[in-house]
Design goal:
The protein has 239 residues and is α/β, with parallel strands linked by helices. The chain is built from 8 helices and 6 strands, in the order αβαβαβαβααβααβ. The longest helix is centred in the middle third of the chain and has 29 residues. The two termini are 32 Å apart. Nicotinamide-adenine-dinucleotide (NAD) binds next to helix 4.
Length: 239
């Protein structure tokens, strides 16, 4: 939405293709900018190549890539809630495949197109838990869970971001990350209250509060910014 508001032609790509087509249609209606919804499995290189082909055929080029897909509490692997000791290797691999390998493949395929063109901005969506550990006692008895695989995958996203920023800076391609704190998505008590008490700003984020960071990193306002992790966490990591 924020990129469409800035006048960008937008492509929404997700494994839930019906949902992205619907959202793209809504975006077109609300903003008047061209928007496409495409099916994509970020763990599959051919799927990324097909996205590149379709977007370049429709819009001519890709200026901005936001790597946002992830296995999370809401898009979970089968045993996402298992304890560390019992966490199956298949789930570990599944989380890393989407969150880290998916970001790697997106950067490879779309980043290569940007390097050839000599310009582009890649924004990798990381997480607080790529920077600090989850506060484990906060989660007890809440039904909310963040496995080690999630934290490790997001720490890997930050490492990949810095690596590519240094590699591609001479080629005009900037690579940055956004680290959101907890974003409210109908979480129940006691989670919301516990989170609020541990956060300097005293609440979870609203989804709209991540928009400014995306707009900044996507645009020339951040033309001298690469390899940065823009933390939008209400001060969580400040104390
Ligand atoms: N919600 C939060 O509190 C929070 C906090 C920090 C970071 N983040 C990060 O922000 C991003 C968005 O989070 P969200 O809360 O909207 O998560 P979400 O689970 O609602 O959305 C993740 C999306 O990824 C898609 N996806 C999963 N596997 C895929 C695959 N193989 N190919 C293509 N798409 C796939 C899912 O269909 C889903 O639409 C994620 O990267 C998440 O890690 C979220």
């Amino acid at each position: 939405m924020v990129l469409a508001d800035q006048g960008a032609r937008v492509v929404l790509a997700d494994r839930r293709d019906d949902e992205c087509r619907l959202r793209a249609e809504n975006l077109r209606r609300r903003t008047g900018v061209p928007a496409l919804g495409l099916a994509c499995d970020v763990t599959n290189r051919a799927s990324w190549e097909s996205i590149l082909h379709e977007v370049v055929s429709s819009f001519g080029r890709i200026d901005v890539l936001v790597n946002n897909a992830a296995l999370t509490m809401d898009s979970r692997s089968p045993h996402y809630d298992a304890t560390f000791s019992d966490f199956p290797t298949d789930d570990w691999n599944a989380v890393l495949a989407v969150n880290l390998t998916g970001t790697f493949l997106g950067c490879q395929v779309i980043g290569k197109h940007m390097v050839v063109r000599g310009s582009g901005s890649i924004i990798n969506i990381a997480s607080l838990y790529g920077v600090v550990s989850p506060h484990h006692p906060m989660y007890e008895g809440t039904g909310v869970h963040q496995p080690a695989a999630y934290a490790v995958s997001k720490a890997g996203v930050l490492g990949l971001t810095r690596y590519l920023a240094a590699l591609w800076a001479p080629h005009g391609v900037r690579v940055n990350a956004i680290t959101p704190g907890g974003v409210f998505n109908q979480h129940a008590e006691p989670f919301v209250g516990r989170y609020a008490r541990l956060s300097p700003i005293g609440r979870m984020a609203q989804p709209e509060e991540i928009r400014g960071a995306v707009a900044y990193l996507a645009s020339d306002a951040s033309s001298y910014c690469t390899g940065h992790n823009l933390v939008v966490d209400g001060g969580w990591t400040a104390w």
